[in-house]
Design brief:
249 residues; mainly alpha; 55% helix
Amino acid sequence: MSATDGADLPATPEPQPSGAPGQRDGHESVRTPRRPGPIGGDMATIVFGLAKRARIPSLVQRHDSTTVLGLFAFVNGVVAIAIMSAVALITGAPFIFPSLGPTAFLLFYTPMLAASSPRNCLIGHGIGAASGYFALVVFGLTDHGPALAEGVAWNRVGAAALSLGLTSGLMVWARSPHPPAGATTLIVSLGILHRPSDLAILMVAVALLVVQAYVINRSAGIAYPRWSPAPNPPLSPPGPDPSRRDLGL
């Protein structure tokens, strides 16, 4: 056999692993979701899971397009707040307030963050509402109207500062940080919502939003927690103990 025999034979391609993130699957010709997505967070994974469950191949293929993600964020934001607004209209109760907006975005953009867990959402907003009302009591503002109507005096400045400080500290001590709760406490201490009944409705609205997040995220295959956030995995495997290495162990 000569040295040139077999020289023209085509090279056998090396097999490629299937199911790698962001690659085409040989059986379904569908890209699996890459985490984090193109704009960070898990929104692309949620769109992928919902599109796959609904059997919409074109949407599955484009699940990580920023155009699709923007439309999903738009529709989800409209639906989330429209539900609260409809409940507010029917009941005449304040089921919608500004800090629901950032909470809704967190729940669908980074649902696996500790701040997005049901525990942190509910405890965080609860701390914010209680701290805001406590500040109103301390500064004698429980019977006053909103600061936007009455103007800002020194007692209102003190109430706002105390409420935000309490909220920040208590969320850390309770190990339940939820950034939008900082807006909730100012909504209360500035008199926008200042009656105890308003605060109870506020918490019901947060609970309804968390239920919506649970249903959508779980439907998309995201392991959104039932209560406490999932424990964070270690950033890197522990290395050898230097002291033992020096001893030759």
